[in-house]
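User: I'm new to structure prediction. If I give you an amino acid sequence, what do you actually give back? Let's try with this one:
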Amino acid sequence: MTVPEWLEFLTAPGTDWPGTLPANEGAVRAVEQRLGLSLPPSYRNFLLVSDGWEEMPTNAGTLRTADAIGWYPETDPEMWTAWFGPDMDFPDLESALRRCVLITTDSVQGDVWVLSADHIGANGEWRAYEWWPGDDGSLLPHDSFGSLLLSARDAWVLERAAEA
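Assistant: Good question. You get back a string of structure tokens that encode the predicted 3D arrangement of the chain. For your 164 residues, that looks like this:
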């Protein structure tokens, strides 16, 4: 999604999904330098419209600001050690998440959103995963950050409609 598409998404009537102030280009470039990779276009453009998201109506907590994202093992070492410490045996899951950028904060429900630098498409988009550490470790894949967020929004809209 482009910057104008994200602006439209975040300000669409009835969504109640306001973003936060945007990150500037310098902040986004600093993250890319720290990671050693260019961020996927849909996520990069999102940050330029909304640097994180304080109140996401999902189980994934909040979207981190540009300066708070990073490689999963380094960004949340406590959770990483809990799942992949010496007494744990989840080699496939550990391998899948090791080169993922953690983009959400801890949530009450425990859902995690990550972007996989090991799965970059021809369009520059990284595969996005939803993961709930309380289950069997299965990762729910999405083609991109944009498709992950749109999927979450659609689920949220359906939930709101059911409550009405």
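You can read the tokens as a compact description of the fold. Here is one thing that stands out. The chain has one domain: 3-163.
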